[in-house]
Every structure is written in structure tokens, then in C-alpha cells.
Design brief:
Elements lengths: L9 H12 L7 E4 L4 E9 L8 E8 L2 E6 L2 E6 L7 E5 L9 E9 L20 E12 L1 H20 L4 H17 L1
Antiparallel strand pairs: 1-8, 2-7, 3-6, 3-8, 4-5, 4-7
Length: about 180
């Protein structure tokens, strides 16, 4: 006798299947097993419209990653260290190759270990690691620098508190920057 199928929410199931067959969506990728390592072969084709732009591979996974290019390790990737992109080219030239193959090694552990809740705790044997983002993107350095400046001014304002004149100056400067962007 066949077992009855598990009932799932229709819309959620439909969306998951649509994403699985769609080239526009990146599907979930769950990795399991502490200290387990897997490899991803990443074949990239940079659009011709991106000539003259800075191009990055954006990669976010729960574990530690290592990008390999031409058989050599070139850069580590980790959300914990806020290093989630690899610079493919500072400025894509007309004659630069648009297609390349990279390998990304992902280890199922955190930056400082695999402890449950902290790096010195015993490992969690049920912990799942997820690859949540893998995409090619144009990096807009001017926008990035603007965000860094805004975060710095916000940090100054919060750190100095409401009773400090410099706090107000930092906050109002950040507000003027936002107003110019509108």
C-alpha cells in the first residue's frame, strides 16, 4: 500500500517549483554536515553591456568559501567577515574575455569553528549550511563609498548621543546627503 502524500501549502509549493525551473531565480541550496566541504563550478558570462564597469561575483554562504581561479586560490569569502564578493575585473575592457570558469570551495563551518551558539561550544550535528546568493553584478563604487560615509556619520551620531553638538552635526550632514540623493 502506498503512503499518502504529505499535504503542503499549494502556493508555497508552486512558487518553489517555479523557481526551480526558472533561469531567473536562484534556488535554495542546503549543505549539511559540519566540517563537510563541497565544490561549486561557476561558469560566468559577463554581458557586453558591462564593458567599462567593475564586475564582481557576489557569493553568500553560511560556511567559509574560497575562490579558485586558473587552479590557484585567490580569495576567501565569508558572511561573518563581511567579504561576500570577488572582484572579477576593476574595469572590463572591450577585448577582455567575457566567459570564465571559477571554482568555489565551501566548508561547512563558521569563520571561527562549528560551535553551537559560540565558537567554543560543542558542534551542532544538525546544523544546516545554506548557499543564499550566487550572482554576477556591476559594483558601483561611488554608491558604496556614499553608503560607507552615511554609516560612519550615523555611527558618530549614535555614539556621541543626543547631548553632543557633534552628534547633531553628523546627523544633519547625513540628512543633507540623503536629501541630495532624492
Amino acid at each position: 500500500m502506498a503512503a499518502a502524500p504529505a499535504l503542503k501549502h499549494w502556493r508555497t509549493t508552486l512558487e518553489r517549483v517555479e523557481k526551480f525551473v526558472s533561469p531567473l531565480y536562484f534556488t535554495d541550496c542546503n549543505l549539511r554536515g559540519r566540517w563537510w566541504t563541497c565544490w561549486f563550478r561557476v561558469e560566468l558570462t559577463i554581458p557586453e553591456a558591462w564593458v567599462g564597469q567593475e564586475v564582481h561575483l557576489c557569493w553568500e554562504s553560511d560556511g567559509e568559501g574560497l575562490v579558485w581561479r586558473d587552479g590557484e586560490p585567490v580569495q576567501g569569502l565569508t558572511k561573518e567577515g563581511e567579504k561576500t564578493s570577488y572582484v572579477l575585473t576593476d574595469r572590463l575592457g572591450e577585448r577582455d574575455p567575457r566567459s570564465l570558469t571559477l571554482y568555489v570551495e565551501v566548508a561547512c563551518n563558521g569563520l571561527l569553528g562549528a560551535g553551537k551558539g559560540s565558537m567554543i561550544a560543542a558542534p551542532d550535528p544538525e546544523k544546516m549550511f545554506q548557499l543564499s546568493r550566487a550572482e554576477l553584478a556591476v559594483f558601483h563604487r561611488d554608491v558604496h563609498m556614499l553608503l560607507v560615509d552615511l554609516e560612519l556619520l550615523l555611527g558618530i551620531a549614535k555614539g556621541l548621543g543626543k547631548d553632543n553638538q557633534r552628534s547633531f552635526q553628523a546627523l544633519y550632514t547625513a540628512n543633507q546627503m540623503v536629501n541630495v540623493c532624492d
